[in-house]
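chain below, 505 aa
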Amino acid sequence: MPAMNHPDSPDQPPRPRCLPSVDHLLHQPAIESLLADYPRNEVVHVVRAVLDERRQLLLSGQAVEVDVPSLALAVRQRLYQRARPNLRKVINATGIILHTGLGRAPLPEEAIAAIAEVAAGYCNLELNLQTGRRGDRHQHLRELFQELCGVEDALVVNNNAAATYLTLNTLAAGREVIISRGQLIEIGGSYRLPDIMAAAQCRMVEVGTTNRTRIADYERAISDRTSVLLRVHPSNYRIHGFAESAALGELVELARRHNLVVVDDLGSGLITDELPWPETKSSSGYGEVAAPISDWARGPALETAPSSWNEPNVRASVAAGADLILFSGDKLLGGPQAGIILGRAELIAGLRKNPLARTFRPGKLTLAGLEATLRLYRDPAVAVRRIPVYRMLARTLEELERAAHQLAQRLSEVVSQATVFVEADWSEAGGGSLPDRPFPTWIAGLRPDGLAAQAIADALRRRDLPIICRLREDALIFDPRTLEPDELEQIPGAVAEVMRELAEG
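prediction:
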């Protein structure tokens, strides 16, 4: 007869029948101790999942450990992973301020406090405290937008894609929308404007060419079925060189002659281009570093942040006479994710009546955070200091270089098997904003010896508090533009820890 496999046989791999039962594992001290920290049904669920996974691996012929200590360790690790939230804080060391993958705009403290207060209990979301009657959730923001932007009315939805869809579906379903070919944008997440227009049940009429569209092109395309002249800002690209586009004022004048509506989709949400930049003297809290401010890498392009935005702004669009203006809340506005529609009161009243408006409406947390952010714009100097997006954009080369030297110095102290360096580099606004306006910065880089930079970056990303950096030529790149002082201090220890673990493992 053939010899039977035994779990303790050195020549034969264990078989599924060697796995202990769920009940047997639950009565092991290493598992029983977990019941003090986790609900019993959670422990039972994980024990079954671990046993099922090991069983499938054994059936596929793979060698896996089936002893109780190994299984208990796997259960403990799985319970710990399940207890961690999937959506959690990360440290952004990429220098990309509006990083879509990392949640775009970090909120000002005032917005965070407002959200926490509203989330902790009840609020007057749709209750008029003066009359005691049912109120309008959009009233909380209407007066602020009127004050800051000079518009008649405002409507907030959950993102700018929803704002575009709702606007076109309300104003142009079954009718024509005229748009320049150079503005048929596609952005991340498979958002393509032609698809949105088709879903909104309006007919897209393209005019002009990719690089040149004149006001005469729009006028020739107008028919008795035309409803909207749509201008869309190409948020994530620019067309340079032999290029021309019709000015918004020209579109407004043409629309008035033909009784049409001009919709201006601004995308990134810059309220005004007159926001002041802070003083060049650094007061960031990074502290002094004994390294001099270098001049070797500075050229004309690395002297200062851009002096002009090269980005359309809400106030300019209002002044030009656009009927409706659409933009995001979580990009250059610096608030929570939202789609904002401003403009003529009768048009926005029509949007509110669209049955789809309810499907796109924001909740109390979004409205609270957006209101607190907008209040900061009452004093532009305060907005630049308090809204993280602008604070990061406006950081001076002096403070960035000092922060980069501080980080490099700490990395050199805790990591021996690596080359640490400081270089001039560029940061990005990100989020489809200011695509042709890179911001000069200084970075701290680490080129490891004997380890792959990609492996270190992967390990940093998988930490309890993930650290996200850039990679370039087998070096890890840390840009202090998007780092707060306390975050910068955590990076050297984390890098040293993961490098030690990788070297030992």
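Residues 1-8, 279-306 have pLDDT under 50 and may be disordered. The longest helix spans residues 40-59.
thats it, cya
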